[in-house]
Amino acid sequence: MFGQTSFGKLLISGRDAEEVPQRPRAADVGVEPGRVVYTGMLDQRGGYEADVTVTRLSRQEYLLVTSSASAKRDRDWITRRAELGQHVAVADVTSGSAVFGVMGPNSPRLLAKVSRAELPNATVPLGTSREIELGYATVHATRVTYVGELGWELCVPSEFAVGVCDLLLNAGRELGLSQGVAMPSTRPASTRGNGHSGLTSHLTTTPLTPACSSLQAREQRGIPRPRACSRGTIGGCPAEDGLLRPRRSSSATRTS
Q1: If we measure between CA atoms, which residue out of 52, 55, 56, 32 comes closest to residue 42?
Q2: One domain for residues 53 and 180
Q3: How many structural domains does the chain have?
Q4: Given this model, what pLDDT does residue 209 score?
Q5: Is residue 107 within 8 Å of residue 159, measured between CB atoms?
Q6: CA–CA distances in Å: residue 246 to residues 53, 208, 212, 226, 254
Q7: What are phi and psi of 93, to 5 degrees?
Q8: 101/79 same-domain check
Q9: What sign has the CA pseudo-torsion 45, 88, 138, 28?
């Protein structure tokens, strides 16, 4: 179980809540409520301003989770991109909730011990979020992981955080639950080709750069290059590294 409470949380709400976040993103956040998009906020050159997850809570509400030190900066960056007359508000709600990352092959078993909610992997796929009852609290359970295993992020109202933490720890004893902090999860994330703000994603990298790095790592382990890969120089990658793109199109695809 990882403590992830320190991550910044921004609530984007209003009639134009979808339109404003779309502009600086590398991926489409116009998804159905209950879906999660892992993406980057980009500057005009395509470099990373921030590495975020965006959860659509309702038609007019999004929850954006960013790095611990970036909440105020990202709030200002998003707000300044709203056009005159658009109806949108961006609030820093970091202190309003605690976040526990329950990750690993036994995470479904642990959640089954503390909640009556049905969370089978087949019906609750990666990148989805829903409210569940956990002890005396109603929490947002988001199916996402950065450690290469099954996992959930549990967003718990601050007033229930201690109770939910104790409940998880007590229920996890017989499953061998161990505790950690957020930063150690960045190493397995990076080695699996996932981005991390400030480590692999910053102003000098673009969404295409991790794809090139991932191909290099695959070939070093003896994994053949995918057929869909053409050659070129993108994001500082050598020409022989190439990037993933469809054969029928010369335009680069988004990577996730």
Answers
A1: 52
A2: yes
A3: 2
A4: 54
A5: no
A6: 26, 14, 15, 11, 11
A7: -115, 25
A8: yes
A9: negative
Question: What's the confidence (pLDDT) of residue 242?
Answer: 33
Which pLDDT tens digit goes with each residue over 129-162?
999 999 999 999 999 887 777 889 999 999 999 9
Confidence of residue 85 (pLDDT cuts 50, 70, 90): confident
Q: Which residue has the tokens 């009639």?
A: 15
Residues 6 or more apart from 85 whose CB is under 8 A from it? none
One domain for residues 1 and 106: yes
Percent of the residues in the chain that have a pLDDT greater than 70, as a whole number: 69
pTM for this one? 0.71
